Fold this sequence. Notes:
alpha/beta, 6-stranded mixed beta sheet, globular
Amino acid sequence: ADVLALEAIRKSYAVGTPVETEVLHGIDLTVCAGEFVALIGPSGSGKSTLLNIVGLLDSPTSGRLVIDGTDTTRLDDAVRTRLRGHAIGFVFQYHYLISAFTAVENVMMPMLVDRGHADRQMERRADDLLDWVGLSRWRDNRATNMSGGQQQRVAVARALAMDPALVLADEPTGNLDTASAEGVFSLLRRINRERGTTFVVVTHNMALAERCDRIVELVDGRINAERAGRTHEPGA
Length: 236
Ligand code: ADP
Ligand code: ADP
């Protein structure tokens, strides 16, 4: 089954003004359940714009976007927001943790925002996720007291809080040193393999891209090439 289907997605900025510019020129892409896809391409090629559209943070100018079986073309805002919260997890280059909150509190945030979850249930789930990312012992540490790599792993646990079908990651290792980047990427790969979560990861790191199932290259707002990555992860 496809977790994601894009048909003829176009995006223009500044629509109706003299500087109207089309930056995505008809993107067709499907991603099936359990796939781990790298999105690569030069700066300005439209990767972030595409990821924002897929993440329901922005709307295409035209085209069709189906997420986890739901056609998002004509959803009202409340349904859209709910779908974003439940079906999609986000990991950004910068972790955007709340620095005054502890690791476990940060992981609980999406469940708190969603409301209606019992405190004990939220906490148990957050602890389970911190265990997944190897940070159980840091549960009560404030985000500011953790290393860059640890903070990004907390952000990964937070992205999984609502058990999304799809995780979108925009340069998740871009701010990290080589060893921490390796740790965070391997973690995403392990989550994909062991939990079956589907990933679309924007990266400039070709060595990491090669370790994805598929590499999709965007150039000037078009898909320029698609090919398989090197599918076997060392030690997997
Ligand atoms: P990438 O993520 O591959 O670097 P972007 O999606 O950020 O590419 O940008 C694609 C193109 O869209 C670029 O030419 C960029 O200048 C333009 N662009 C991005 N965001 C906006 C915006 N909010 N308004 C106008 N143009 C934008
Ligand atoms: P990162 O590479 O993510 O910044 P570190 O280099 O701090 O993280 O940690 C690398 C590994 O060692 C991780 O698995 C982390 O959980 C573990 N670790 C980090 N600090 C300690 C510590 N003080 N005691 C035990 N294990 C630690």
